[in-house]
Each structure stands twice: as structure tokens, then as C-alpha cells.
# Entry
Amino acid sequence: MEASKFVVEEGLLKYKEKKVDFTLVVQKHQVQAIMYMMHDHPLEAHRGVDTIAQKIRKRYYWETVYQDCKEHVKTYRKCQF
# Structure
């Protein structure tokens, strides 16, 4: 990971991937809340792994986004029916 891809804006650590705007770097304890907002919430339609990971990456950054999405969808009870 290149340090030049990180910047602090208004006290928040942000990450720039490719030519996209900076996204908020989140801590591990924030991941579950983001998963709820982006996948579990009734208005989110419980999208698949690729869709949810893409949606999250537009706003947030952490190293294991895709793997965490995959695990979350695999273990989320409502998606198993």
C-alpha cells in the first residue's frame, strides 16, 4: 500500500484508489454497521457479493472489503433461503 494514496481531510483518513475520489478509511469495528447499511437494511434488497462490494468501495475503504462482503453474504440468514 502506498502512503501517497492516503490523505487526512477534516480529521478523517481517506484513501484514493485509481482516479476515484477519496473514500473514507474505516476501522474494523465500523465494518458491521456499514454491512448493515449497505446490505442488511430492508431498503437495500440484499444484493450479491460483487454488487455490495462495489457499492461499499465507492464510499469506504478497508483492505478486506471483498472478503468481508463474501463472508457476510454467505452467513447472512435471510440470504440463505
